[in-house]
Design goal:
Keywords: Isomerase, Metal-binding. This is Ribulose-phosphate 3-epimerase. InterPro entries: Aldolase_TIM, Ribul_P_3_epim-like, RibuloseP-bd_barrel. One of its GO terms (biological process) is carbohydrate metabolic process. This protein is of the alpha/beta class and 241 residues long. It has a single domain, classed as Alpha-Beta Barrel (TIM Barrel), CATH 3.20.20. The protein is 37% helix and 18% strand. The chain contains eleven helices and eight strands. Strands 1-2-3-4-5-6-7-8 form an eight-stranded parallel β-barrel, surrounded by five helices. The protein is globular and about 45 Å long.
């Protein structure tokens, strides 16, 4: 059965907490975007407030506190950042149930340095211990313009694919690309059993078509938070699945 995941893209820890407070008892899984201003032009917490030296981030690293309402939510972290693999252990300390790596941050060509980056990512995945693989799902995100042959090659190494609805990532409110819809159909046809989540540009007008194309999870951000009644809108999305 398909599911709806609310997305939070915020510059401050306090605003993340505010939105999580709003979502309590409304959903189990919440998607949180991390943008470092390097892989994406935009920045979110903690990169807007000192990066890994941010006070709230350090408190979690030192196990003085956890993510807000960590007992109530399963967190999905979207790492739109450079050096995501190198800093994997830091993000894990925040307590996610799912972590998403971006193909574009690894290199999406099969030649030269990009191929080396892909191979290093494969080695990283193979080197994760069994406990980690059992407790945290790993996703691979790709943009409409990314090479689907590389996505297909890596699909068997990860737990799910995360289809971005636009090449302009790190922002909410983008228009969903027709190419993204075709990518979902192609991957569902050619990779039996693959789990696909979809992110960016999803609204109540196009959600059914995206689900019909084969999406298993819809990640909803601006359509939710820019609506007059986010809870009513979330329920409307949930009624579609």
């Amino acid at each position: 059965m398909a599911s709806i995941t609310p997305a939070i893209l915020e510059k401050s820890f306090s605003e993340i907490k505010n939105k999580l407070t709003f979502l309590r008892e409304q959903t189990k899984t919440v998607h949180i975007d991390f943008c470092d201003g390097i892989f994406t032009p935009s920045q979110t917490w903690p990169f807007t407030t000192g990066g890994f030296e941010d006070m709230d981030f350090e408190k979690i690293m030192n196990e003085e506190e956890g993510m807000p309402f960590w007992e109530e939510f399963d967190f999905e972290f979207d790492l739109m950042v450079a050096n995501a693999v190198e800093n994997f252990d830091l993000y894990i300390k925040l307590g996610p149930k799912r972590i998403i790596f971006h193909l574009g941050a690894l290199g999406h060509s099969l030649t030269g340095e990009a191929q080396k980056n892909i191979e290093e990512f494969e080695h990283f995945l193979e080197g994760l211990d069994m406990y980690m693989r059992d407790s945290v799902e790993i996703g691979l995100a790709f943009k409409p313009s990314d090479d689907l042959s590389v996505v297909s090659k890596l699909s068997h190494k990860v737990d799910f694919l995360h289809c971005m609805g636009s090449d302009n990532i790190g922002h909410q409110g983008e228009v969903f690309s027709d190419k993204a819809l075709e990518n979902i159909k192609f991957l569902k046809k050619n990779l039996p059993g693959v789990v696909i989540s979809v992110d960016i540009g999803i609204n109540l007008e196009n959600a059914s078509a995206i689900l019909d194309a084969g999406a298993d999870r819809l990640t909803v951000g601006s359509s939710l938070w820019k609506s007059p009644d986010p809870i009513e809108t979330l329920e409307a999305f949930q009624n579609l699945v």
